[in-house]
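Aim 2 progress update. The chain analyzed this quarter is reproduced below.
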Amino acid sequence: MNVLVTGGGGFLGSYVVERLRADGDEPFVARKRDYDLTRWDDAERLFADARPDLVIHLAAEVGGIGANRDNPGRYRFANLMMGAHVLEQARLNGTGKVVTLGTICEYPKYTPVPFHEDDLWNGYPEETNAPYGIAKKSILVGAQTYREQYGLNAIHLLPVNLYGPRDNFDLETSHVIPALIRKMVEAQERGEPEIVLWGDGSPTREFLYVEDCAEGIVVAAQRYDGREPVNLGTHNEISIRDLAELIADLTGFTGEIRWDRTKPNGQPRRSLDTSRAEQLLGFRARTSFREGLQRTIEWYRAAAPAYAAR
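Predicted structure tokens:
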């Protein structure tokens, strides 16, 4: 079987590729430098080159609260067009199956916790990342309508925030865990007495270790053929304040953590109901949060000189 992984050179994509190779597959890895999937011609050329039986569509443009606030138009356009082009090319080329990856940002701002897939349409997403979330939600609609009209076997997965080694630690575009790790490690090395974090620390988040997410994606590609979206997560919720204190403990940072309440908090709470993934996929995350954070911190300490050089 020919497997195409868009975004296969990225953070999550690299782990999905490794997981596929462990099963004996050698996927076709599509990177942005070779194929800009926001362009129709590039998407057409990619499918001609890869001739996929299975597509795992992971390519995305994404960042933390600050990056979403600075790039709402770009994030909407890029993610919308990439998803539309992949689905249409899959239809035109007779691709057997497409796995599309959504985001927890698709959920309404005030979704009852834990988030269940049936609540996906019961409100507007949190404002700071709504354009990104709505673009991703449109891919779900595309997958469902292509299934209905053309018989395309397209499924949609909704992972929570990911973390792990090889994550993006650029403070301009990173998510909260890599940002906290980098700030604390650098402050510790420089002997700085404090770090400043956005908001007040009250929002809660759920995090999924990247290798566990890759496992869930591959299992879904193998076992799930339904139209309904499926959450991928751990069902464990932690406040940003408690997260900061945990990372401070693991990195050895002993300075003050100061909260800048003039900056946005983002969505008040995020935690997923993962019962559908357990029932339909037999999937349950295996990596404990503390263990995953320790691995991520160790990786960043080894990679820190490269980030400092930038």
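Residues 72-92 form the longest helix (21 residues). The two ends are 40 Å apart (CA to CA). These observations will guide the mutagenesis experiments scheduled for the next reporting period.
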